[in-house]
């Protein structure tokens, strides 16, 4: 786990793609996209139907590692409106157990059109002056935590190209990588992400590597 500061708050990059907020004893994850495989199976694209189990297992491990008592899911929680209804018994049991042992909050995303089976559903929240929402809002003056873009960083190391999910940040905006097992990614320096981070002159990609925080300027990633 890798500590860093955002908007005057101590934060911790945990389990690669999640964020722990010690003051809130809260784990934040974005873009779970539960039941993505079963969604595609309906249209003939057969994928292993265990993505929800894997994703929820990783959430459970992050909760165990951090000791989190609260979980904020930053939108695109299920892949489609009927996703919650398609949860198979094992995954449904995992989710039920997680929502029993934590204060679980679902924040709405653009994929979230249906009901949630447990926990609390909200459009967005403000916690200690930081806005929690799914997609970064251009012109938002308050500090903001969001997801939506699935940022990842491609860098060259010793002649090899390496791609890693990453957070991206300015002084007042922090976008988390996607946490779901079947989520893809968008280049951290993509114009859509840069636009979401405005003003983005000091935008950084953040990765935790061997217990250290790696900060990579996005202008350099775009070069």
Written account of the structure:
The strands form three sheets. The protein has a seven-stranded mixed β-sheet, with helices on one face. 22% of the residues lie in helices and 33% in strands. Helix 2 packs parallel to helix 4. It is α/β, with parallel strands linked by helices. It has one domain (2-222): Purple Acid Phosphatase, chain A, domain 2. It contains six helices and 17 strands.
Main beta-sheet annotation:
7 strands, mixed
What would CATH call the class? Alpha Beta
Write down the overall mean pLDDT. Answer: 89
Which spans of ≥5 residues are poorly predicted at pLDDT below 50? none
Proportion of beta-strand residues = 25-35%
**What's the arrangement of strands in the largest beta sheet?**
1-2-3-4-5-6-7
Domains, number: 1
**Second rung of CATH, namely the architecture:** 4-Layer Sandwich
Structural class: alpha/beta
By DSSP (H or I, 4+ residues per run), the number of helices equals 6
Tell me the helix content: 10-25%
What is the rounded distance between the termini?
29 Å
Q: Which of globular, elongated, flat, extended, rod-shaped describes the shape? A: globular
CATH topology: Purple Acid Phosphatase, chain A, domain 2
Q: Mind telling me the C-alpha Rg?
A: 17 Å
What's the helix-strand series? Answer: EEEEHHEHHEEEEEEEEEEHEEH
The total of beta strands comes to 17
């Amino acid at each position: 786990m890798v500590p860093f500061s955002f908007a005057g708050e101590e934060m911790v990059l945990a389990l690669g793609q999640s964020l722990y907020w010690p003051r809130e004893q809260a784990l934040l994850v974005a873009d779970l996209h539960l039941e993505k495989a079963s969604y595609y199976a309906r249209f003939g694209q057969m994928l292993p139907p265990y993505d929800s189990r894997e994703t929820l297992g990783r959430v459970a491990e992050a909760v165990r590692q951090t000791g989190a008592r609260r979980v904020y899911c930053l939108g695109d929680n299920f892949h489609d409106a009927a996703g919650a209804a398609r949860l198979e018994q094992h995954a449904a049991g995992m989710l039920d157990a997680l929502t029993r042992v934590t204060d679980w909050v679902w924040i709405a995303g653009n994929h979230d059109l249906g009901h949630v089976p447990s926990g609390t559903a909200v459009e967005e929240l403000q916690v200690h002056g930081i806005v929690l929402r799914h997609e970064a809002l251009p012109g938002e003056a308050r500090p903001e935590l969001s997801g939506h873009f699935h940022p990842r960083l491609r860098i060259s190391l010793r002649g090899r190209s390496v791609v890693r999910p990453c957070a991206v940040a300015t002084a007042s905006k922090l976008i988390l990588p996607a946490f779901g097992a079947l989520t893809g990614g968008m280049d951290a320096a993509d114009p859509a992400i840069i636009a979401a981070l405005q003003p983005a002159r000091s935008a950084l990609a953040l990765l935790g590597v061997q217990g250290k925080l790696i900060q990579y300027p996005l202008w350099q990633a775009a070069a």
